[in-house]
Amino acid sequence: MSRARRYARFVRELVGLHPKLFAAAVAGAFVFALFTVASSMAIEWVIDEVVLPAFEPGGVSRSTLVAGCALIIGVGVVRATGVVMRRSFAGMTQWRVAETLSDRVSERFIRQPASWHRRQSDGQLVARAGVDVETSISALAPIPFACGTVLLIFVSAAYLLATDLVLGAVAVSIFPVLIILNVIYQHRVDAHFDNAQQALGEFSGAVHESFEAVQLVKAYGAGERETQRLSTMASKIRDARVRAVYLRGTFEAFLESIPSLTNIGLVVLGASRVQSGDLTIGQLSGFIFMFTLLVFPLRIIGYALSELPHADAGYRRVKAVLDEPLDPDPRDSIGHTHGELAVQLDGASYTYPGESSPVVHPADLLVPRGTVTAIVGATGAGKSTMVDLIGGVLPATAGTVSVTPGPTAIVFQEAFLFGGTVRDNVTVGLDVTDDQVWEALGWACADGFVRDLPDGLDTAVGERGVTLSGGQRQRIALARALVRRPALLLLDDTTSALDPATELAVLDNLRTALEHTSIVMVASRPSTIALADDVLFMAQGRILDHGKHERLMHDVPDYRELVEAFETDRAAPAGGAS
Fold this sequence. Notes:
elongated
């Protein structure tokens, strides 16, 4: 697709979001254009009929003077009305389009499942909904003025040629030169804006990542390394924009000098035409006034064209999000079990996109309702992926997954807290009473420290729960799941940051308070594993065996070796968050 067609489609799609507002802005621009030509005609009439006769014997009549004043004021008022109308509705169009695009991008993010978000960069997503949307609308505001300028060019060309064919031909011949300059500029600057917008998106993602890892950066003394990395990325943006600004500066210098030099030539040529009697002084004054008024609007066309590559680059990044097909929601592929089963896997496996080997090999599993099942395995065995399959976070590549009817809650290994209050983090929009919140906190053994916080449930925990310890964050995340009274509770090594006594108390609470809830948990603490009704032993993405902890310890050497290694790790001196 050619650039012209691509830009025309870009403008058409954005304008199509709020066409009535844009039409009102263009109407205001047309009013301004038509009465700009009328102002030159008014100047011509006033000079010939009012100003010059005032220096002649007999002067000028009062009625003619009043008519001249009324003409100038009337034309000026209508032009000003056109300006106000154009600016107001152009601004409204611009920010309504921005609002619509932002809403659509955000809605698209919301509709994409968690499996899609895992493949994306948070910083890039933020850039698409923010920086790229703002860039997309940057060309909208000058477009109505540019449309009015196109009308102004045709009407003024007719006026200039009608006033004096010779002078008009000279003046009109400049229009193609300026348009050609605009086209050359747009063609050369396009690539620089594309590069700058792409680099800006990458830079936003890197900055977001750097802030996310600020503790790691400081702990490992990597500040200088991050500074150099971000500086290198920022320099790419700077270089691309400097090249674009250099081109714009050169272009605007030509656009400024050509009309100015032409104006001088018109004055010289016009003076000879007045002297020969082919023009009146009023006609020459109106002619020069009209050509001078055209210079700025012509620059607006240049400005609009210069903004198009920049805006189109941002819009294409936004469109990439809007046009990307929605990933199937893994939860939609999960069936419901029947009878006394809480979880049923029938040949379920998962392979990450682009990989050839599955991270979870075809597995068959039956989990009875109301039981506690522990998943045990070494690092990389596929435990978390198994939990994600059961919880509908990832879709099964093959086979089927079925779970018990009713709500399923999952608590991830890394507890995420919002920057709001404790209450907000537990309820997350669920309509429950404070008594129910305290009950869930009690089951998670979190009620004690929450009562000690300055404002209890109303205490703000800071971004990502930065004011709390790791164990406290995990217990609030667990309470968030428990307040929903799930039929199936999935714990991905959720209690790893708790001390053994607190972990046992939490698990005991779950058994007694939620006796009908089925629990599947990734566990690495032997005392926790021993409490499970059934233990799944995984290695290299396969379920090698399952049964009671005692039997596996006796019959499966690899399992016994792994659990003994867990015991050794726990016995080693270590600091832990409570």
